[in-house]
Every structure is written in structure tokens, then in C-alpha cells.
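#help-structures
NK: newbie question, is this the right format to request a structure? protein is BNR repeat-containing protein
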Amino acid sequence: MRRSVRPSAKPALIAAAAALLLTATALPAALADPAAVPGPAAAAPGPSLTRIADTELDPRAIYFVSYDGLVNNNSFQKNGILTHAGHQYAAWYTADRSAIVARRALGEQEWQTVALDHKLKYDDSHNVISLGVSAADGRLHVNMDSHSDGFYYLKSVPGLMSSPEEHDWTAAVFGPVQTSLDGLPLTSRFTYPQFVATPEGGLLLSYRAGVSGDGRNGLAAYDGTRWRALGEWSGSTGRYSTAHGSSTSRNMYLHGIDYGPDGTLHAFYTWREQNTGVMCARGGLSNHDTGYVRSTDDGRTWTNAAGRTVGRTGGPDLVEFDDPGTVADPLNADHALMNQEHQATDSAGRPHALISYVPGRFGQCVTDYVAGRKAHARAFHVHRDDAGRWHKTEIDVPLASSQRSKLAFDRYDNAYAVLPYGRVVAASAASNWTDWQVLFDGAGLDAFGEVVLDETRLAQDGVLSFMYQQKSTGTTPSPLRTVDFALPR
């Protein structure tokens, strides 16, 4: 199947809305002409947004609410939308449950779509589609439709991504749907596929083996020729105790797994305890603590921020909840701390994360995490400075949602957080990321909640691009769209 999708025909309305909703940081008049001012060059600009496009990918994308989320827009979906070699790619399920992949050239408004030979199994928002690119052979990889069971995988012909103009966007460029990685089975309890492009042109595939409260993170590696299983790297055992009770089983929920500019692999995470008795009330979330580890050998060895080894992938020494020096921000299990939020690195390779929970000023015991988060949750920015200190700043904007946010940086290291409903807040690097303010309030999007961020596009053309699905009711399909904002260049 192939079709073209055209943008909303309201350019004048969009331009007028943009003028009202955008916030820019202006330089003093004396600095407008650097040549007129002796001494250092003008200061780097602060954060700003210019809305440049809003296009429809699918007028009737599949819609059902499961685990407070949508299968086409989930925070742990990496990557539901990405950019490579001047083209943007996206994946989703349409109304008849077919898995769709699409592409467009950057700067163009029309998308080309292909229906893959697979239909969504269950009404489960965990069963997302994730995309990855192996630059070594120019292939697009697709992993989809799994929640603690088997996965579905396929890959394109070589060269599709490196030479997109030479390939028609048809089903013929994709191989058959498999239930393994070219014969590599991994695990029968597979969830949360995340493709990570390696600096050498290969791919890592991150996944969870097991179930919520009793799972381990694993890795597989693709070198442009074949897949290899690297094994599991996070542990699930040991006793975690609180004033309310104890738990002896858990899983690590990743905020992300990403390379920094120097080739270091970064991972922020929270821990989910299996025994809800560790909480003050069973209606909360048994997530606790924000942890951080890193790897300088493509995920084979893991260290804490100070460089001490705390785990090795595929061996008996796994990263555990009580490993020394791994907690970036301590928090008990009584504040509805959200799992699988987001992370990014700045141009200097400093690790940053977004976390969210109900602050203590609203009470020390969340009894219903959905209601509590909708009423009181706030997002927080966590980062590590060059001296090795961790910092946390509250983004004082009510989330009004049980859902998650996304994080990105522009070329000047200004930070942008995309909150639920497509709201964008930002902080300047000059303030050490403390002056968070609303740049876009989400007006006109009618977004359901979480969005899927194109994490790769900013570096290519300075555009913040994210995919969102509009609100609906029951199982009535709704439009799936992508919105683009130009950032400071």
C-alpha cells in the first residue's frame, strides 16, 4: 500500500497561532551586530521555538487506552519516529491494526506509507513499534508487538537508508516478518525494544526479559552482518526494605539508553518492586530511586558515575539496586515516581534526565497514583556537572497527567522538555538549566497525552519534531500527526 498524506490546509491559522504562542530570547540591541562591539562574540541565544509544520500521518490511527497510554505514543517507544540522511521515518498501527512505516524528505509535507505484513495482536499499549538504523549496511530495522511474550522483527534491503532516493517506498524493500533476529531468539518474555545506533555504524537492541517486578535488561548487537546476543545486565534479586515492608524481586525500568558525543553509553533508570507492600498504600507505584550507570565499551561493562565497575553484561555480576554510587536522586516508593521517563546528553557529554513524581509538599503518601499524579505531579530535571555533583530542578508546571515527558537539547545546550499534551517548556544553558518556562502550551494539538520525540532530527536540521495522537473515546480511531518546531540555529 502506498499513499501520500497532505498537511492541514490552515497555514494562515497556524502562522497566527505561532505568533501568539512562541517565546523567543532577544539579544540586547548593542549585541545585534557583533562587529560593532569590541571583545568577545555575542552570547549564545537562549531557548526559542518557531512552529513550522503540523502534518497528518494517518486520519484513522488505532485508538484504545491501555495502561493509561496509547500503543502509537508511548515514552518507551524508541524510535517511533527518527531522521536519517535527510529523510524522516515513522511507524504506527492504523485502524485495521496493520503495522505502517512511512517516510518523507525533510522539508516536505507529504508522507509515503507502506503497510507491513503484520497486524497488532492485542489491545495493549506496550506492544509498540520501534525503528532502528544500521549505518554500516544502510538497513532499517523494525521490532514490534510484544509484552512479555514473543516479538516480531523485520529489516529492509541494504542501502535503503543510506540512499533513499534510489529506492521506491514499497513493501518490496522489506524482508519477511520474523519471530527472531535472523534466527536469534533472545527470550520468550520480551518487552520494550529500543534500538540504539552505535558510533561504529551498528545497532544495539535493548529489551527486558521477564515481567514487571521480576525482569532483567538485556542487549543484542548487530554489526552490519549478523546479530549476537550479549546477555542480561541488570539484576532482579536482593532484599529492598522500607518502613512498610520488604521485596525480594524487582526490575530496572530504563529512562533511556543513549550514546553521548564521546561514545559513552548512558542509562538512567528507576527500580520497580514486585511486592507492593513496600509502599504506604497499594494504589501507588512501587518505583523508587533514580539510578544512573554508564558504559565505555558498548554496553559490555557498566560503571557508576565515578567510574567504578558495577556490572558486566552476560556475566554473574549484574547491576543491582544497592550497587554503590549508582543513585542519582534518592526517593522512596510513596510518591508515584514514574518509570521510563526520558534522558539526553548535552554537547559536553553531561548526562541529563527528566523524572516526575508527587512532591512531598502535597503529602508523603500517594494512595492512588493516577489521581495523585493528575492532581499534583511535577517534572524534575536531573543532571550531573563536570565536578561530579548531581543537581535537581523542579519544573514548576503542573503535569495534570499520569503520563511522561521527553527531553532534548539544541545546538547551544538549551534544554527542552515536551510535557504531556504536547506542551513545551525550556531552560537555558546559561542559567545552568534552572529558568524553566513555557514556550508552547499545546493549544490546537488536542494531543492525548504522551508524545514520541524524534531524538535524531535536531542534530540534522535544528528542528524539534514529535509525533502525537489526538484524543478520542473508546476505540474510535483518531488522527496521528507530527508537529515541527525550529530551534535556534
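mod (FA): yep, format's fine, and the C-alpha cells are attached above. The radius of gyration is 22 Å.
NK: thank you!
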